[in-house]
Amino acid sequence: MAQQDRAIRTRRSILEAAAKVFGERGYASATIEEILGRAGVTRGALYFHFSSKEEVALGVLEAQMPIDRFPEQSSKLQKLVDHGMVMAYRLQHDPLVQAGVSLALDQGAAELDRSAAFRAWTDQLEQILTEARGQGELLPHIDVTDTAEFLTGAFAGVQAMSQAHCNRDDLDHRVSVMLRHVLPGISTPAMLAALDFSPERGRRVFLEYQGHAPETASSVARS
Prior knowledge:
single chain; 223 residues; Arc Repressor Mutant, subunit A
């Protein structure tokens, strides 16, 4: 178990170092040597976990994947809101998640499958929207696939704007505003009135999630 814990910590340290290097230099200009120096590990330790710079980058990309086991909510649209608010919180506090998003939007990382993260988010939101429709929470005309893709793209744009404006310091507010504008177009009026869009919602839900989920190599940050 101690050996496994060390391996998890080493992998995490490599990913965190890579996140900083990718964030500073971009994927194309980053080198394995820089990552090794920043992580303080040997080349053998890195290649035990990753076979190439591309694999390291894919590991960083995976860090921003949606959390699967949220605290259950009776309302599936509240679960949808919570996904956005928790991601905003993670982006404000976890450099590894920040780097994953930056890589997904890095035009210089053409050889990476940068679309995987977008697909993961879209698929997760489509599933939640399908469940919401099954519970009668959506307006009848809503296409769940189109809505999931729109929300994924809208979030990407909002977080990019927040990053450029103030290094994401106001991202929780901006995502709350985005959801307050979008949800009236898809939710039944009765359900809409019960939703919590507050900017601090992401922190509350994430800390509740952390209290019930074991930490992994891709766990997100401490507040």
